[in-house]
Amino acid sequence: xxxxxxxxxxxxxxxxxxxxxAIVGTFYVKERLGLSAGFLAALGFWATLPxxxxxxxxxxxxxxxxxxxxxxxxxxxxxTASIVIMIGLLGHTEALRAIAPIEAWYVLSALLAPIGxxxxxxxADAMTVEAVPRYEADGTPVNEARRRSMxxxxxxxxxxxxxxxSVLVSFANVVLLRDAPNLPPAQVGALYLFVYELALVIPVxxxxxxxxxLWLRWRDAARLRAAGYAPAExxxxxxxxxxxxxxxxxxxxxxxxxxxxxxxxxxGDVPVGQEIIFAASMAIVLFLMWRLTRELDPEPRNVLVGTxxxxxxxxxVPGPGEGLTWWFIDGLGFDPSFIARLSLIGSVxxxxxxxxxxxxxxxxxxxxxxxxxxxxxxxxxLPVLGMVHxxxxxxxxxxxxxxxxxxxxxxxxxxxxxxxxxxxxxxLAWIANSAPDRLKATxxxxxxxxxxxxxxxxxxxxxxxxxIFLVTREVKDKAGRVSVPADxxxxxxxxxxxxxxxxxxxxxxxxxxxxxxxxxx
Length: 521
Prior knowledge:
Keywords: Membrane, Transmembrane, Transmembrane helix, Transport
Membrane topology: Multi-pass membrane protein
Distance between the termini: 33 Å
Oligomer: single chain
Organism: Piscinibacter koreensis
Structural class: mainly alpha
Radius of gyration: 24 Å
Number of domains: 2
Order of helices and strands: HHHHHHHHHHHHHHHHHHHHHHEEH
Subcellular location: Membrane
CATH topology of the largest domain: Growth Hormone, Chain: A
Family: Belongs to the major facilitator superfamily. Folate-biopterin transporter (TC 2.A.71) family.
CATH class of the largest domain: Mainly Alpha
Largest sheet: 2 strands, antiparallel
Number of helices: 23
CATH architecture of the largest domain: Up-down Bundle
Number of strands: 2
Strand order of the largest sheet: 1-2
Helix content: over 70%
């Protein structure tokens, strides 16, 4: 472990601990906002969209390499603004209501945070390049084999930092929310407020990481100057990328135009605006993929296209949405404390699964892995569907209350969580291995944008399912009257539809790839 690894790792940790407010945020939306499950799925689409802009952001980082720390400060500012809005909603509700509707403030907060995290994540990826030194403290070059080993270590630690951060906040939520079920409403609100106030440490961690990086660079420069190297030589030794590349206006200008159009469509409430933006995003990314794949021979190009199709469809499968979480709370009585314990179990076992299935991920094709994950995920989702139809009541009656809804949820989470990152690791390896050597950065950015668009497609599908099968939780107005009654009667059909699509779509993609000239890696 080297000191130079810490700056990007601290930015990654900040991303990992971003889930600190997730449970509190879920209960806040359910208890205090009248947003429908379909609207929240649509909001999830817009919140996912910034991740498809990593390509122009990556090019921007290359252009302003020496000043990329400023982008981390920008991202930290956006994250801070998002958290401060939520603090205002919880602690100064009426003051914010006098300016704009509460729902509008929440939407703004939900959109600012992912933009900040995307900016910071893009810079952190770049920081991992300079975290691996090219020269020793005395100025002697680091040999290629050792540098390659250090790069592998750096990337492994990056994944551990993100998942480790999620484990840390899961444990924090267990401690913070342990008494929530027994508190009166006023104290519950104060507890929610404290969690968001505590979340202000998240942007601080990333900023401290950048400041540490600047200090380490100053220290290394001082050592090299003391060893007798001229300032120009010191600058060349410490600058990992040399001169910035020429501006690619296709990437930078196109990304800016896409961002402006997306904002205009979103604010203008254009009919089918999400579909328009998704189609435009997909067209841009497919065009860039087409341009890039011309660099490949026909055989690897077919493998790349087949692999991309399988992974995209697998990640684009729609889910049941927030209605299922609401039913867990209303129908099964899951409180913040219990959900925090489930989150902790899931985070720990997700980390464990990365090591448990390491050989499986390395030796099997992506089509095989996706097919296996599809079957396993479907089978592990059946107990949830069963509980909607009373499975937990039957098991509790048969076991004297031993196997109730919470027991089923814990066992199901323990079995399902190790699978959480299995689909991600082969995808990342596929992107890295498929990229031509002279176009690795651009290739990685375009393919990452494509696979991130699959998550946007999943949110669109989730919105459609929730518009067809309506699920509502109880919503009260300011006078305490019920304005929207709870109705979970269509939840079972909603989950069943999601499960059917979750099986049919990935296997249809696999069958198509197998039946055509395309293949998977």
